[in-house]
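task queued by scheduler; priority normal; single chain, no ligands, no partner chains; default sampling; output format set to structure tokens
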Amino acid sequence: MKELEINANEAGQRFDKYLKKYLKEAPDSFLYKMLRKKNIVLNGKKADGREKLAAGDRVKLFLSEETVEKFSGGAPLKKVSAGLSQEELCHRIAPDILYEDSHVLLVNKPSGVLSQKAASGDISMVEYVTAYLLENGQLAEGELRTFRPSVCNRLDRNTSGIIAAGKSLAGLQALSELFRERGMGKYYLCIVRGELEETAYIRGFLKRDMKAHKVRVSEEKEGEDWLPIETEYIPLAQSSRMTLLKVHLITGRTHQIRAHLASEGHPVLGDYKYGDRGFNEVFRKKYAVKDQLLHAYELRMPKLGGALLGLSEKNITAPVPALFWKIIEETSWQHGIREALEVLH
């Protein structure tokens, strides 16, 4: 017999879904048969699997150790990703933690790090978050059978800034819903080609080209697979050839900011996919700019409750990357740079 206690990370899910995670190799028919025969019980009583679990609930499995081990797929791996230990992985990525409570974690993702795995051997922010929670004792290895922390928003590999992750199931679900319903303000910083002086609200349509790994933007909807996009940009400072922008991402499609600004004639500095190669090369040679200078700078939270109470009406900002500062400080700006520096500091 094996007894399990439901913790905060696992609470809020249906009992049968919990069992399917814990005994992931077991057929559904086996699980429901064990429930009917009371070989699996919840809080000492017969259950049908539809019950919603709460922290402190106790599950008893009247099964042999061999059966549990067989259907659980063995013990969780101590190596989190690519053969790295938890401590090694934390030190390998080591982003700044911007906010943390018992349900959520917001971190400043460095440029060059994936938000989520693209291949089995990748190291992403999901692996970092998992390793961080394991390393400081907030998550036990055994819990990874029934709950895995995850990120709720995705940034391009070479875009830096705020990544939001759920530490508990309740936090993950609530935060994911908030992003899905566009319930917060999302603001980015970027440097673009050309001098912009007025705030603008631009609309259009975007279509993904999976083969080219790019998107296309049009002012008109050209087919059913073209999705509406909305972007607002606020100029913070101008030079004779470029502008420091604060961009309000309203719809949040793949590559939206990069492609939408490029379609307006103002590509992001360092963006070789949608940008101006000649413009980029000047800064690559002088400042070693190799990728887009795009930074997920700020999240403005609405009034919240439940698992997100700690984030209610908070504005979370991520420190501006050093390369941004270097270009800002060493470039001749005509208007607004003093005010911009005050805002960003």
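post-processing summary
- Residues 169-180 form the longest helix (12 residues).
- Residues 115 and 154 are 5 Å apart (CA to CA).
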